[in-house]
Structures are given as structure tokens and as C-alpha cells.
């Protein structure tokens, strides 16, 4: 795992105390997902995005299934053709910690300009709001010295909510230099001062209504779905019933390719998510072989999947092949990088599969979380291991992992991560961990 040396300023009343630590950088977070074969080119949206040279922030906000990541991929490809330096960062729940968030922002800028990360690289990460803003100044100085335009992409922004991170990003976006443009994908619209930036014509917000397919895009989407061209009236019906929702149209295309034996239009009613899930049940999961269904259900407890991890949960040795076939068949899965080491199921598909797992195999969910916990702990992913321990309601193990990890978190100034997991663990479990109590008290002393 690459390391970034950070000279961290940890708040200590009444002064800041400097700690020299080595911060782990998670390389898979910097890999832009490969573009999907057959994806409709969102030309009208690209024209909007690149219409004004004044825009420094493009915020793409919509619920799951609207093609936010696909649009960001297409913007990235366009920026690449323009000769910009490119950086991609996919956030997860662990990034709701200012120290980790800032470390990865610095690292993605380094990677955009092909600067290798070594143990001698230094960045200042603030552990308190005032010092965090000094870090913003350092980022702005770095961006202001660029000799080449930078296009920086941040996906899954909805997973962060920390007030310090919001203040940091608000200040950063407000003062971006002309050479840098940030593109952010999120399910929600956080308080980042975007309205003020819009008034200055330096920000563009694209929402769900913008991302819906129009009729021409719907025609293009179905052009290669069948050997027999679809009738105009069928396309019109599909467009009206789905209201241009890309995820719903993808389901319809899967049904066409699968040769569904009942009129597609009669099956499609996506006025709400339950109808979407019903369609998934009847026309996606039910069409898979029993062993594939079992694979999908068992791995649905994971936020991201890797072949070895899937094999650990299923007890089989075929995960690499299965994941490849799922990707080829367009079953709502995408790789998290060009090396295809990690994959992620579409959130709507994952949520549906988890509900099916609880219904079909009562009691299996907890065992699967325990298996995932063991795998992540053995492979040095403590945040993921604690997540699965908590989901399995194995709070004692979660506390043990946090206690072992907490010394490192304190050294790195990642006190918010300790607080986040402390809020989840039952009080009686923490009381049985005297060492953890001491470290938690130390952390809370500087957070509150």
C-alpha cells in the first residue's frame, strides 16, 4: 500500500502539536472506472459543461441510477483530449475524516501530474478547523502554480458530511484558480456555497432532470439492443414509462436482449423504487443460473468486491470468472479501476439483492458479514473489518479492532474516525475495553 508522509498538526489546547507520521494511501480510490461499452454519448450535457470557460466547479447531483459516474467518465475523456492533467478520487465512508480526506486530495493532485508517492513526500493536514483552512491555502498554492490545466473528479461525495470537510471544500471551491476545474458527483446537494458560485457563473449544477435521457438518447440507447430494430411506438412507450431514467432503460434493454416473452411495455412501471425492484426480481435475477443467483446474494453484503474476497464468502474458486461474466452481461457492476482488482455493484441492485438475501436465506446475512470481517481484518483493512463486525452485531470484535487501530488513528490525527465508530458501539462494550476507553477519551478531549 503506498504511503504518504504527512506533517500533521493535531489540536492541543492551547497550541498545535506537530506529529510526523506516515499515512496509508488507498490506490484503488484513484482509478477512474473504465467507460462502459455501448454507453450513450451525452453530447448535450457535454456541451453544457464546456459552454462557459468561467466554470470552475461542475456538481452532478441525482439519485442512484441516473448515470452520474458515466457522465463524469465522458467529461474526463473530453478533458483528456483537451490535454488537461486528470485526477479521479472515489470517496467512501472512511473519508468522512478531515485528515484522511485531505491526504487523498493531496495525493490525487500528485497523481494527476505523475508525481510518485514516497515516504519523503510531505503535506500538512490540519486536525482542527483553523489549521484545516491553512491546508486549503496550501492546496490553492499548489493549484496556482500549475503550468497545465487540471481536471479533478470526485465521485460519491454524498458519503462525507463532516462540518470541517464541508467548510474546507466550500473555501477551496470558492477560490479555485483558472487552471483547475473540479467535477463532483453526489446523490445529495451539500452546503458548499454553490448558489453563491452560480451567481458568479463559476459553478454549474446538473440534477436528475438534466440527466434523464431525452427521446433521441433513448433511441440511441436501444439501437444495439436487438437484431431487430424496435418499433417507434415501443420506444415512445418505453421513454414515457421510464421518464428517461437510465437505470430503468437499462433494465428494459436487458429484457430485450434476453428475449422476454411478454410485452416489455406491460412490465415496465417505474413510478417508484418498489416497481424497479419487482422488475429486477422477475427479469434479472430470475433469469440467472442458480449458482449465479447464489453468488449475487452472498456477495451483496459487500460495499465493494474482489475475486479473492468473493471466493471467501461463497466457498467457491470461480469469482474472477463470474465477475467477468457479470460485467460482460451488463448486470449493474463496474470495475473500480483498469486493473479490475475491485468491483462495485450498482447501489439499487445491491439494495435489492440484500433484501432478497434476508428473505430467501434468513440468518445468512450475519454469517456473511463475519466472513467479510475476517477477510478484511486479515488483509489490513480495519475500517471495512469494523463495518462488517458491526453489521454482524459482533461488537466485541469491532471494539478489539478499533482498540488495535486507534493508536495509529491518533498518530495520524484521524480523531473523527474514532468518534464515528464510538457512536456505533454499545456503551457496555466500550466499558469492557479499558485501553480503548483511554484512547477514546484522549480523542474526544480534542474533538469536543
Description:
- By secondary structure, the chain is of the alpha/beta class.
- The chain folds into three domains: 3-211, Rossmann fold; 215-287, no CATH class; 363-448.
- Helices cover 52% and strands 13% of the residues.
- It has helices at 43-49, 68-81, 98-112, 129-144, 163-174, 194-199, 208-211, 215-222, 232-242, 246-257, 264-267, 273-283, 290-299, 307-314, 319-328, 347-360, 364-378, 382-391, 395-411, 415-422, 427-431, 434-447, and strands spanning 3-12, 15-24, 57-61, 85-90, 122-126, 150-155, 180-186, 203-206, 333-335, 343-345.
- It has a five-stranded parallel beta sheet with strand order 4-6-7-3-8, sandwiched between helices.
- The radius of gyration is 23 Å and the shape is globular.
- The chain starts with a strand and ends with a helix.
Strand content: 5-15%
Taking all residues together, what is the mean pLDDT? 82
Classify the oligomer: single chain
What is the helical fraction, as a range of percent? 40-55%
CATH fold-level name of the largest domain: Rossmann fold
Query: CATH superfamily membership of the largest domain, which one?
Result: P-loop containing nucleotide triphosphate hydrolases
Strand order of the largest sheet: 4-6-7-3-8
Output the structural class.
Answer: alpha/beta
Number of domains: 3
Largest sheet descriptor: 5 strands, parallel
Corresponding CATH architecture of the largest domain: 3-Layer(aba) Sandwich
Number of strands: 10
Radius of gyration: 23 Å
